[in-house]
Amino acid sequence: MKLWGGRFTKETNQLVHNFNESLSFDQKFYRQDIRGSIAHVKMLAKQGILTEQDRDDIIRGLESILEDLDNGKLVISSDSGYEDIHSFVEGTLTERIGEAGKRLHTGRSRNDQVALDMKLYTRDEIDAIEALVKELLEELLAVMEKNTDTFMPGFTHLQKAQPITLAHHMGAYFEMFSRDRSRLKDIRRRMNYCPLGSGALAGTTYPLDREYTAELLGFDGPTLNSMDSVADRDYLIELLSALSTISMHLSRFCEEIIIWNTNEYRFVEIDDSYSTGSSIMPQKKNPDIAELIRGKSGRVYGALVSMLTTMKGIPLAYNKDMQEDKELTFDAIDTVKGCLALFTGMISSMSFRKEVMEASAKNGFTNATDAADYLVNKGVPFRDAHGIVGQLVLACIAKGIALDDLSLEEYKAISPVFEEDVYEAISMKTCVEKRLTIGAPGQEAMKKVIGIYKKQLEMDDVR
Ligand code: ARG
C-alpha cells in the first residue's frame, strides 16, 4: 500500500521501489512509531479533531499491531510492498480497524513523524549506551580499589618513564569513560524537544496541542521552528561523534591490553573465555576480541563522516537524502553497544599479574627522576642532578642491574652527595607514595579520588 497513489497514473518501477524503500531498516523503530502515533491520536481527540470513538479504535488497533509485532505473529516482510514503517503501520491499522485507520495521519506528515521516531529511538539507545558505560565504570572502579598499591611502570613514548600504580592507570580510563557519559547526558538534554506537529515543514492549520504530545512522549517541550524540526539531524551527528570518542577510548585501551597480554610483557592474561586459538599454531591464544573492538572504531568513525557529508548540502527543509541517517546510525549504535558489553566482560575476567608489573617497574629505571630529586633536596641544582643520575644509569646498564642494586661506594664514586638514605628515597614505595597531589598515584591521593568516583556513580552524577 502507498500513502500517495492519487496523483500518479503509472506503477512505480520495481528498481525505484527497491532503491527508495526504507522498510527493510526503519522497521527497527516500529515501537517508537506506534508510541508516537498513540500520543498524536490522543492529542487529536483532546483537541476535538478526532472523535473519542475513533481515538479508542485507533489506539486499540495500534496496540494490537504492537503486540503482534513483539510476539512475532505479525511479520514485516520486505515484499509486502510497503515503502516504510510509517506506511506499514498505517496500512495494517486500516486493514484491521477500517475507516478510522485512515484518520490517523490527520495533521501530520511523514517528515515530522520520522523526525520524531528517530529521536525517540536514539533517545532510548542513548540511555542504554549510558547504562553500559556506567557498568564499565563500575568494573574499572573495582579494579582500582584492589590495586592502589600494585606498582607498575608508567610510560611515555611506550618507554618506561616513572612508577605508577595499576589503580592510577585504570583511573585514566575512568576519566575518559566518565567524560563519554557526560557527553551522552549533554546530547540527551539538548535533543529532548519534540518535533511532532511540525507537519511537512510549515506546521499545520489544525489546532494541535504540541505541548501536550511533547509531554506525553517525555520531551521537555515542543521544538520551536517547524522547518528546523524536520531537517535537524544535529543530534545524530553529536551522538555519532560521542560514539566515535567512546570507540577511540576503547581502541586505545584494547591496544594497551594487547601489548600487556604479549609474552614479552605478560602484565595481564586475557581469560580463555575471551580469547581464540589459531587453526595452525597450537600454542597460540589470540586477543581477537580486543583486536576486533580496536578495529571496529573504523566503522563508527565512518558513520560520523558519512552523516556529516550527507547533511552538508541539504537545502531546507526535508529532503530524501536524510533517509541515509538510519542504517549508519543503527550500525554505529549496535557496534558500540556490542563493544562496550564485550570489553567490560573481558576486563572483569582478565587477570592482572601484579608481580610482573612490579618487577617491570623496578627494572626500567622508573625511579631515575626520584634519584635526581633526591640530589636536588640535598642542594644539587636539578640540571647537574640530571647529569649525575644519567651517569649512574649508564653504569647500571653496563652491569645489567637496577639503580637500587648499586652499592653506596658506586653512588659516591659518581657524586659524594649520596648517603645511605638514597635507597629509601628511590624505593618503589617511596617513589609512588610521595606523589600525593590530587590526581597523582600516591595511595592517599588515589583513595580520595576513588571516593569521588564512587559518589559520582552512586548519585548518577558526572562532571
Ligand atoms: N523513510 C523516510 C525517511 O527516512 C521517511 C520520510 C519520508 N518523507 C517523505 N517526504 N518522503 O526519511
UniProtKB/TrEMBL annotation:
All residue ranges annotated as the Argininosuccinate lyase C-terminal domain in the record: 365-433
Domain Fumarate lyase N-terminal, first and last residues per copy: 6-302
One of the GO BP terms on file: L-arginine biosynthetic process via ornithine
Subcellular location(s) per record: Cytoplasm
GO molecular function: argininosuccinate lyase activity
Catalysed reactions, semicolon-separated: 2-(N(omega)-L-arginino)succinate = fumarate + L-arginine
The protein's annotated pathway: Amino-acid biosynthesis; L-arginine biosynthesis; L-arginine from L-ornithine and carbamoyl phosphate: step 3/3
Chief place where the protein resides: cytoplasm
EC number(s) on file: 4.3.2.1
EC class (word): lyase
Keyword match Lyase: yes
Gene Ontology annotations for the cellular component aspect, listed alphabetically: cytosol
Alphabetical keyword list: Amino-acid biosynthesis, Arginine biosynthesis, Cytoplasm, Lyase
Family: Belongs to the lyase 1 family. Argininosuccinate lyase subfamily.
Protein known as: Argininosuccinate lyase
Organism, scientific name: Enterocloster bolteae 90A9
Originating gene: argH
